[in-house]
Here is the input.
Amino acid sequence: MNLTGTLFVAALGLCLAAAPAAVLTPRRARPLLAGAATTAAGLAGAAAGVTALSGQGWSARLDGVLPLAGVRLDLDPLGAMFVAVTGAVAVCAAVYGVAYARHGLDGRVAQATPPLFVASMLLVPAAASVSTLLVAWELMALTSLLLVLAEHRRRAAVGEAALWYAVMTHLGFAAILAGLAGFAALAGGETFEQLRAAGLPPGARDAVFLATLAGFASKAGIVPLHVWLARAHPEAPSQVSALMSAAMVNMGVYGILRVGLDLLHGGPAWWWLLVLGAGALSALFGILQAAVASDLKRLLGHSTTENMGLVLIGVGAAGFLASGGDSMLAALALAAALLHVVNHSAFKTLLFLAAGSVLHATGTRDLDALGGLRARMPCTTALFAVGALAASALPPGNGFVSEWLLLQSLIHALPTSGVAGAVTMPLAVGVIALSAGLAIATFVKAFGVGFLARPRTPGAERASESPPAMIGGMALAAASCVILALAPATVLPGLSRLAASLVPGSGHPPGPVPVSGEVTLRLTGYEGTISPLLIAVALAIAVIGLLGAVRLFASRRARRAARLWDCGAGPMSPRMEYTATSFAEPLQRVFDDVLEPESDLDVTPTKESAYLVESVRFRARIPDRIERRLYDPVLAAAGALGRAATGLANGSVHRYLAYGFYALTAVLVALAVIW
Amino acid sequence: MTGLIGAVSQVVLVAVGSPLLAGLMRQVRARLEGRAGAGVAQPWRDLRKLARKEPITPHGTGWVFRLAPLVLAGTVLVVAAVVPLVTTLSPMDGVADLFAVTALLALGSVALALGGLDTGTAFGGMGASREVTVMALVEPTILLSVFALSVRVGSTNLGAIVTSAVHDPLEVISPVSLLAAVALAVVTIAETGRIPVDNPSTHLELTMIHEAMILEYSGPDLALIEWASAMRLSVLLGLLASLFAPWGIATAGAGLAAVVLGMAALVIKVAALGVLLAAGEVFMAKLRLFRIPELLAGSFMLALLAVAASFFLA
Here is the structure.
């Protein structure tokens, strides 16, 4: 077994050992033990991913573990990248979780399940056969479902969220199962090698791709299969939210890449235009919902849908360009998408962990009730600011680098990709631009309203800084954001090589990497350079120079504190501050037709006169329009069917026996006729 | 070497000249409205006076409020060093392209919006909310116009776009270029808070965007913001001039004389654009806040048409 294999097996072993150990140890030692084991497992997993990505692959075959098929594992570069990301996210979440567990999450199930969840997410990208993939996928779904349910005694919403999640994830599983089982049956074998070598008729290829796309896209929270995401991710404990939103959703992207590009070797252009369209819809719809959301964790959940949408725009563009024969540009789009997966995992881990700290300290996730955390939780505020900068895709954040690469791949595609490309690419650029603009508005709101100004409620007033382990977990995620922002060349060569080898038709050995350069990133074959590090340095020099100039030339008198401008009407109360809802109101009004917000106003007049108002009550809600149009009718029909079916079962045993008799007769008659 | 001198001269010219541009525009407005005006150098006198005042920190504000003016001015200075105003040979040219320039300008606006929110007053929140709304809607137009302009040269690098326009002057009057020019002009007006999107001289809270955000700033902080806003206007006007009327810019192989010529050309072009903008503002009223999206949607359509034209007319 080589280094990769040793590290990977160590990671899995640590996870699998941590679960029973957490069950057996006393409550007080449990979080530390489980956290330490998961941290070590995450480190080993990340290291295994990095070594495998740099060329040292590993594969294994364990026939005795699963009945009939056995387990097959193979860490190739594609899987390795997702293993590395999962490992890194697990480290941050586990360090953070040690202290977060004091918040009533040190029960046996809540502590024993996260290591298993991490193990399943390490296994999914390493699986090398259909049965192994499906078992790991189902293990991932079940462990994450248990974790979503961890706080079900505290809030009624948890149960509903978990139900949505359970149903959606199993429908997705059924779609993947159907697609891959059909694929394996047609290919005459279920290992990925056999699937890769199989030549399927075009109709069957389309069916396999569409079925697996539906299943994998629902895991990635892609519109219109996103409804569970913004419910389930926020209701889970925060370090689990981070694992789900930064590592688990990636598995959906992994699945699409594995099946679409690797096993099916690309496909017709319409597959990828479909992926691109779904991605564009998700990016816009997700960020629009995030822009008007006032629940901090829900906002982050919607932002996950947006970012997965951006990734799928890249993946779709890559597949589309590859189907047109432009493998260089396809590799660039794919490298941008992969870099965005890494960047999104880094900043979303940070943001969810910081949101958890806020929830821990104030007892609320409602932005309208927060504020003033800058003075009370300075470290959390600064760390959240790093994440928010990255998420709004502004330099010098890491989100900017991947969006820049994505835009470059799209604009260079225009002259070569025919009329379909000429229509698609500008619209995709418009979608990315609008989602970037709305992301700025969203995160200015989340940071400005949630952390700055003055506290809006006593809960926010009483907030205090989180314990060191939680800050440590966030700081690790923030450090990776900073490294990715200033030196994307630490990960880009590996991702570029992976992208170049993954693009169908790139041949063996694959073509040159699409992006190169250490400080200044250069596109290969196209003109385009950017230097995130030099931008940051220039910005720092400018700001420090200005600070010096202000000290030198401006007044040297000491700063004086003064009253805020209150129009002369006396001290202002926090109730006069702008809230998240009022901040988002102009955007809500602009996108009125898309969002269809609901509001009702109850005015109660006094008894004496209809013109004197005693109380006014205003309620506003922004329901998910897709959910309302698409899911509510289906749910209503299912409910009606269920109620109608109760008429058949009236409790009479005679009747049930009669049903049995008729059913048997019907089967026998049918058999007699057909046979 | 010429490139370095050109880049430094560009930054210095923007830093020194932009308050004068603001003064010129106010003077033009004053004359057209039948007033005497305060003179072209008045913004500099204002800045000097503000800089000498006592710095004030309103109650309840923190490091975000203090840092915002510095970040705003810092981003504009970096942009002034990167974009080809006097020369296309800036050593910073490869560091940032047109996408990065727009993102840097957005970073400045974000810093100011956060500064406004940090005060915790209704004014600050209102200004910040309106600013980011306008910014979110402006973004698609900017990127699509950039896209349209980059198709011809196959790059979003500013130096490459401008050099190609210098070498082929007829490109400037192509449909692509004209449509993109109109779209970018609307965007420039929105980004710099001029009429009809925002009124820089308003003090009525119903209509304020920029002024509401900076209501709590005073003294040297306010001086920094005013100066940065003026620089932002000159850089954006200069960028418009460079993209659509690139004559006089020092390109590859140019000597020091060309840099001096480039500076003179920049001053003339930006002053002409400023006068045009100021004269236009005299005849226009500010739009209602919720009519602004219609204007921006219109500019988005023009940008989309520009991209379509760049493909179908090529």
